[in-house]
Amino acid sequence: MDLTYYLQTLDHFFIYLVTSMVLFLIGTYIFKWITPYSERALIKAGNIAVSLKLLGKMAGLVVVLQSAIRSSINLIDLVLWALIAIIVQIVLHLVIEYVFTRNTNLAKEVENGNTAVGLFLGGVSVLVGLIVAATISY
């Protein structure tokens, strides 16, 4: 085991880690920004449905980011693929939540504490993240 090699690449690890965390926070912030209610307040009040939905969104973002990290050839490549994937993830989430379920206000259901809807939407976010992540390749 060549310890020198690992010490020489440690800076790359930290740069990618910090960049990925910033991208994760940006994606999470955008999801929170487009949500019509305060997720923080509802989670603090014990709304499990909101918590499940937000956790699913965050997990979907992580899946997309890990794929961008694995497929990137440099830091700029990582940022570009991650931003594209985050945008696609958000657009697909909006399409699924608002277009395919026009007759039901899913956001209102989650806000009212419908755990089944929160879990469904969180799960959909993870599944969409897996699909988007699989498309990031060379």
From TrEMBL:
Subcellular location as annotated: Cell membrane
One Gene Ontology cellular component annotation held by this UniProt entry: plasma membrane
InterPro entries with a match to the protein in the record: DUF350
Keyword Membrane: yes
Top-level taxonomic group: Bacteria
UniProt keyword terms in alphabetical order: Cell membrane, Membrane, Transmembrane, Transmembrane helix
Membrane topology according to the record: Multi-pass membrane protein
Spans through the membrane: 13-34, 75-96, 116-136
Keyword flag Transmembrane helix: yes
Major place of residence: membrane
Pfam families: DUF350 (PF03994)
Similarity comment text for this entry: Belongs to the UPF0719 family.
PANTHER family from the UniProt entry: UPF0719 INNER MEMBRANE PROTEIN YJFL (PTHR40043)
Protein's name in the database: Putative membrane protein
Organism whose genome encodes this protein: Halalkalibacter nanhaiisediminis
